[in-house]
Amino acid sequence: FSYLYKNEIQSIDRQAFKGLASLEQLYLHFNQIETLEPESFTHLPKLERLFLHNNRIAHLIPGTFSHLESMKRLRLDSNALHCDCEILWLAELLKTYAESGNAQAAATCEYPRRIQGRSVATITPEELNCERPRITSEPQDVDVTSGNTVYFTCRAEGNPKPEIIWLRNNNELSMKEDSRLNLLDDGTLMIQNTQETDQGIYQCMAKNVAGEVKTQEVTLRYFESPARPSFVIHPQNTEVLVGESVTLECSATGHPQPRITWTKGDRTPLPSDPRITITPSGGLYIQNVKQEDSGEYTCFATNSIDNIHATAYIIVQALPQFTVTPQDKTVIEGQTVDFPCEAQGYPQPVIAWTKGGGQLSVDRRHLVLSSGTLRISRVALHDQGQYECQAVNIIGSQRIVVYLTVQPRVTPVFASVPSDMTVEVGTNVQIPCSAQGEPEPVITWNKDGVQVTESGKFHVSPEGFLTIRDVGTADEGRYECVARNTIGYSSVSMVLTVNVPNVSRNGDPFVQTSIVEAIATVDRAINSTRTHLFDSRPRSPNDLLALFRYPRDPYTVEQARAGEIFERTLQLIQDHVQDGLMVDLNGTSYHYNDLVSPQYLNLIANLSGCTAHRRVNNCSDMCFHQKYRTHDGTCNNLQHPMWGASLTAFERLLKSVYENGFNLPRGIEPKRLSNGYSLPMPRLVSTTLIGTETITPDDQYTHMLMQWGQFLDHDLDLTVAALSEARFSDGQHCSSVCTNDPPCFSIMIPPNDPRVRNGARCMFFVRSSPVCGSGMTSLLMNSVYPREQINQLTSYIDASNVYGSSDHEALEIRDLASQRGLLRQGIVQRSGKPLLPFATGPPTECMKDENESPIPCFLAGDQRSNEQLGLTSIHTLWFREHNRIATELLKLNPHWDGDTIYHETRKIVGAEMQHITFSHWLPKIFGEVGMKMLGEYKGYDPSVNSGITNEFATAAFRFGHTLINPFLYRLDENFEPIPQGHLPLHKAFFSPFRIVNEGGIDPLLRGLFGVAGKMRVPSQLLNTELTERLFSMARTVALDLAAMNIQRGRDHGIPPYHDFRVYCNLSSAQTFEDLKNEIKNPEIREKLSRLYGSPLNIDLFPALMVEDLVPGSRLGPTLMCLLSTQFRRIRDGDRLWYENPGVFTPAQLTQIKQTSLARVLCDNGDNITRVQHDVFKVAEFPH
Fold first, then answer.
1. Residue 1035's pLDDT is what?
2. Which residues are annotated as a binding site for heme b?
3. Domains of the chain
4. One of 53, 714, 920, 986 is an active-site residue; which one?
């Protein structure tokens, strides 16, 4: 305690109570104290009572009672306190005491008189007219040299009068520490004898009890002479929340004064955005910051001396925001479901998933991907429920809730089923069928085991009802409705019977005149073509193609002629009865079954030659048929002797698709829409999607992979082309008229095609010849059938490319004179080994250029053996292989006659080809996945039809065109190019003289097994040697193989790609995005969309070619399905398959299974001495 009251004390020294730290009570009342020093009581931390009442105190300096944390009682009443703005600090202190309740205080105003007696605690700034400072005069930038004096003006007003404080580079200046600095009475800062250290950013602050205010920042720039820029303030990395404002300060000095500019990121100029400004001092100011403002910013200070820069980052911290939000899902039990969930923010948010507020199940089925997607595999019923995606960072979190509904799997159940029906010929019929299930089932229809597809003949409604237009007796049979989903399938069938009333038809009166006219016009066109082709050298690629495909067997010619006459007759009858047409909604079709009565159809068949050329099979010579094959493939299947035989209609996996349900190809009428779009020109598809100048070498397989595929194909199928190059109506050549009059089906050239510059309007193309009655097996042709095409070859792998597919062809190439079972041979080379014999007869396609060579074509079992030199070389190998084996067999069996040697050898050669194909070649093409689809051989099945399907021959097996290199490489014994060099493909067509004159077959064979093949790349399909220079000749329009493949598919009524996806159990594609699993390249899908408009329109061939390859194979998924189906049928339906027990003895089979193409090359090449064991695999040479 210290009692100092009533002592007439007038003042107190600030050190008076120093050392009295324990003093608790200090009584100074009833004295004459007028002023108190600011720090008089700072040494009394435990002071609880301070009595100063009844003194003469008029003013108190702020801070007088600071640090008195133990104060409980303060008395200042009965003093002469002058309550002005300077006492506001005391009013705030007293209010604090009152609010806390820990201390009592008393202080009253004496002046001014209007508030005399008022408690200081109740005084407000408004009552005292206090004003916060305001600047009345701002400082300005200054440039100064050494030793001068600088004045920064700063004037301010306020109540009470503001105190002026100066800052340099945001630090308060101390006038006491530097005598050169002076603060003048009016607030002006004077800097005497300026130095370099004085440069920087200055700012004046005016401050009083009512507040404070700052002037603008100004710069003092110091120069002794012109100076490079230097930063006064460097920008600093700054973190900011979205929506706030941020400034990156940047200031520099130099002489001349540097100019400040900013860039973002990799020196990109700042965007033009009103949110972004540069302050007068050079700082970068961004208002309402967004997430995209985050990044690196660079401040440049530039003057005439130099350019400097400094970098800082704006780090925008933001709450997570969802960029991809999951949606409620309903899935079928067992499926996989994805809930995509992605968010952005800073820091980058972490995605977490919960179910029903708890953790996800800990099992392999629930997986959160790196993208944030929740994937649930093999969804179970108990997975149903509410899921929550949370995006979390240090700023906060966001969440979104979704619901998963799981439906149990249900196999299809029929809601409506068809029943047997009897209908009138020529009518339209609808057969009901619909089904329910989970997933929703897809409805397909089969007729007699062949799937029905959308066409002018058939239509399947969305609910599954089948409509058959223009019903004829050909439509009779058993129809099966199949409802299929991923759980299983159900089927129901019915029998359709067609009643044919014995009444005359509109076309009956015109039958005789039409058949006479048809015979005359067809024969005239065929004879004109023969004269044109055989009386002179080929003059154009069209001639080459026609010669190349013209049948050698007269029986084939007559059968093709009969089919053309039959169909031409119907066309002429239609023309005669135009007035009585039954026109459909599109105005393009009529009812063929209502055109001619059955007895007249039989008359047409008889007069056209169809009936006369129907074969009668005799399979009674079981001694022969049990051991050997016939040349034409008949009697292989003894229950169905015509299955797989030559000169029969191609089989079909799906029903044909013709515009009118009978014979008109898709796209033949350009204005006719399919699914809302016109079909694109095949040439446009080729140039847009297929042709390529770029080739990617195959790092695994050689060019022999392609060559064996072509050689194999020529053992399986050859479509009989129209015998005429001229249209039947007037005999004009198809390439000159560019119309679609039978048999012409010209490939039109689009307006912007490069070939238009050469004046070409179309490319030559004629339709394949139709089968008589198109597939009729009945002796009575009492109905018309959709157009089918003829396979000129046997469907078995039986070396028909070596021996021919008819007795006529076989006799042409046999050496019957020697009676040693040999094949005819041609000229013998210096190696001592013979070439193939030359073909005899009129000039052939191989004499296309009289400037090159007069050497004719070689003769082999297949008429296409001269197509290109690589193929010719393989034909030569196998002709030699036959003669080599026959010679060895004669040595072992000198008692055998020539026929026995021939057939035994032929049987062995066929088995070798089967083994090489299935054991060495197909595994490379199919890969492990495809070989599993093909399955192991389980023995002969007589219920399997080995016939080649139209889809296989016309589209699927043409995939080999994508494996062809643009060059045929020719290598010598050291695997170096021969002197004549490698051969561009277009120079290798029909050029046997190059084998005779340029080194034989060995250089070509080495180029096949010693050089990498072309890789199948969806964006690099057919090289331009095939699309721009096929069969090219001087001053003519070359052909385009890709366009021809597409046109041939339409000619043959091949259904679109979509139907085969469904057939192969792939997903139904309603949009082009639905193709992304099989065609991943978005550019290819976009091209398909631009060309076809609808995925339901895409032609089969181009779609198969652009599918992504199944890993380990050279095929896409749909193509693999089609090829594995065909090769399984070829193998399982062949009674004389080499592995079928009894065909060969176990010892013979062991020897055959040691066969390889490498061995055949060594045995039959001219001088092949080095070859890899597997000629399909890439190897380094010398080997």
1. 39
2. 961
3. 1-129 (3.80.10.10), 131-315 (2.60.40.10), 325-407 (2.60.40.10), 410-499 (2.60.40.10), 519-612 (no CATH), 677-720+796-1054+1114-1183 (1.10.640.10)
4. 714
